[in-house]
């Protein structure tokens, strides 16, 4: 009877233990994803990263996928949804490159300032998102030749760009001419000073030689005068001896 009670107690305790283990078991949580995509920018030339980020965030979010700036703490290296925008401005051309897992495209523009930046981003999206071209043209058709811009407007735009480039070149030429003129004046001044220094050195050398020659002639004159006086004295002595002989 005692053995049965002990066995019954063991069974009850075992059941309680198993029940406790089952109730405390938890399922592993899955990483949550809210679909957030981040935008990173890199700018060279006339554009700053703030302007690039502003235009890129607006246009990419409008025509492709919502993007936001990375948090101050940065983003993880394992983050999958990152759009990298690179802007390079040189020689009257703005080039924009957009890179991500689902979009790799680029676009350029001959315009300058914010207009050139916006046009480059729009052209990159137009080139990379074939299913969004109609929507892009409806919103910004006047910005892109690909959308069938009015030829007169296009010619005026190109003329404006050429005018800007011409003015920039004229200004560069003016500055170069100014530099050349300044350098020429400096060169002529240096040559004049060098020639004057050479002449001064020549004058000093000539004066020195003339002074040395004067001193030599003075010494020679004195020596000759002494010799003349001696010869005269000898002559006088000879004449006196001759008179005595007579």
UniProtKB/TrEMBL annotation:
UniProt-annotated stretches for the region Disordered: 222-246
PROSITE patterns: PROKAR_LIPOPROTEIN (PS51257)
Protein name: Lipoprotein
Lineage of source species: unclassified sequences, metagenomes, ecological metagenomes
